[in-house]
Amino acid sequence: MSMEKIIVRELNLWYGEKQALEDVNMQIRENRVTALIGPSGCGKSTFIRCLNRMNDRIEGVRITGKVEIDGKNIYDKDVDVVALRKRIGMLFQKPNPFPMSIYDNVAYGPRIHGTGDKKKLREIVEDGIRGAALWDEVSDRLETNALDLSGGQQQRLCIARTLAVKPEIILFDEPCSALDPIATGKIEELIHDLKREYTIVIVTHNMQQAARVSDYTGYFLLGEMIEFGKTKKLFENPHKKETEDYITGRFG
Amino acid sequence: MITANTADRLLKILLWASAFAIILVLFSIMGYVFLMGAGVMNLEFIFTTAKNNWKEGGIITAIEGTLIVVSIAVLFAAPIGIGAAIYLAEFTREGKTTKIIRLAADSLNAIPSIVFGLFGLTLFIHYLKDYTGGASLLSAGLTLSFMILPTIMRTSEVSIRTVPLQEKMGSYALGATKLQTVKNIVIPGALPGIFTGIILSLGRAAGETAPIVFMTALNPITPSSIFRGGNALTTTLYYLTSEGISINRAFGIALTLILIVLTLNYSARFVNNYLTRNQRR
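YS: structure for the whole thing
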C-alpha cells in the first residue's frame, strides 16, 4: 500500500466568470500512475495545471480549495512557486524542446538551479537521457540541435530534461497527442518504468492509454470529477452511468 | 462595347503598370545617381580628406562622421528600446500603461525629423553643452537615437512575441524564474528579429539629414573625439548642393550613401538568416 502524495480538497477554479472546476477531491498515491480522462473541455488539463500552479500565469484565474503535497498546501502564501515547480515536472501536449543542443536542453534545469561543475553536469545530463530511454539514440550527437530529433525523440528529450532537475512528481498533459503509435508506445513504456521512482499524473483523451499505463483513473465531465478509482475497476465495472457511457463510447 | 473579359484584361494591365511603376521609380533614381555619381567615384574620393571647400579631395571625414554618429545613436537607443520591448512583452499585462507606452512610441515615430533637429539643438547644443561639447558628433548621435528609438522598440517587441509560449512554459515548468526564462529563452529566441530591427534603423539613421543639420560642421573635420564636431554624408550633400559647390560631388556622396544603406539592409537579411538557422523549423 503506497502513501498519498497529493491530496486535493474542494478545488474550484474560475476563468473570469466561468467555473472550470467544481469541488474536485482526489488522492494521488506515491509511485503510482494516476490517469485523468474525459471529453475535451472537461477540465482535466486545467486540473493538472493546478498541481504545479501553472494556472497562476493565466490572467483572470481564481482558485479556491487546497492541493496538499506531502501534507503542505501548495496554495499557501508562503509557498515558493519556483521551488515547487522544481519538485513537480511537467510534460506538454506538443514536445517543446528549446532551440538549442540536446545537451543544453537537458542541462537547462540543473544550470538554472546552480549546478556549475562540468563533470557533475555531464553526469546529470547522461542520467537524465538514460532515464528517458533516449541515450542509445543520441549519445553520439549530444551537441546537435534538439529540433532535428523526431517528435517522439523530442518528447523523450523533454522527459530527460524534466528528470535532470530530479522532481518527485511528473505531470503529463496529453503527452502523446502529437505522436505516432510507435512513439506513443515508447512513452507509455517509459511512464511504466518511471513510476518506480516518481509519482505520475497523466491527462489523456485516449482511454486505451489510460487503461494501459495507469493504476488509478479519474473521470472528469464538465469540471467535475464524476468517478475515481482503481483503473481496472473503473473500466470494467464503473459505478456511475456517465462513466459507463463514456468508456463504452456512447458519449464523448 | 466593353465586354467583361476586356474589362478584366484592362484592369490587369493597369495593376501590372502600377506594380511596374515601383520598379521604374527605383531604377530611375538608382540609375541616375549611379550615372552622375560614378564620374567622381574613385579611391581618392572615398579615402581622402576634402580640400578647397570640398571641391577637391575626398569625403572620408563625412563617411567616418556618419558611421560614428549612427553608432552612437544605436548604442543609446538599442538598450532602451529593447528594455522597453521586454517590459511590454513579458513584464506587464495589456492595460492603460502599455497603451500609453505604445501611443508614445507611435507619436515619437510621427514627429517630423526637422523637429528632432530643433529639439536636439536646444537640448544638446545649448542646455547640455558642458556634457556634449555643443555641436558635436555626440549631440548628433543622441538626437538620432531619439528618432530610431520607437522603431527599435516596436521591432524588438514583435520579435519577442514570436517566441513560442510552449518554450516559455517549458522553462517555467523546470522551475525557472521569470528573469531566467527571459534571459535564457526569450532573448535568444528574439535576437534575430532584434538585430534586424537595429540594422534597419541604422540604415535609416544614416540617411537622415534634418535632425543633424544643426550639429555637423560645413568644413571638413577629421573626427578626433565624439565631443567635437564632424561631418556627415547627408549634411555635406545638402551643403554642396544648396551652396552650389559641386553637383557632381553631391551625387558622389549620394551614391556612397545608397551603397552604405543598401549594404546595411542586405546584411540585416543575412544576419537574420544566419541567426535563425538553429531555430524553429
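YS: worth flagging: The longest helix of chain A spans residues 118-131.
IM: good catch. Also The radius of gyration of chain A is 18 Å.
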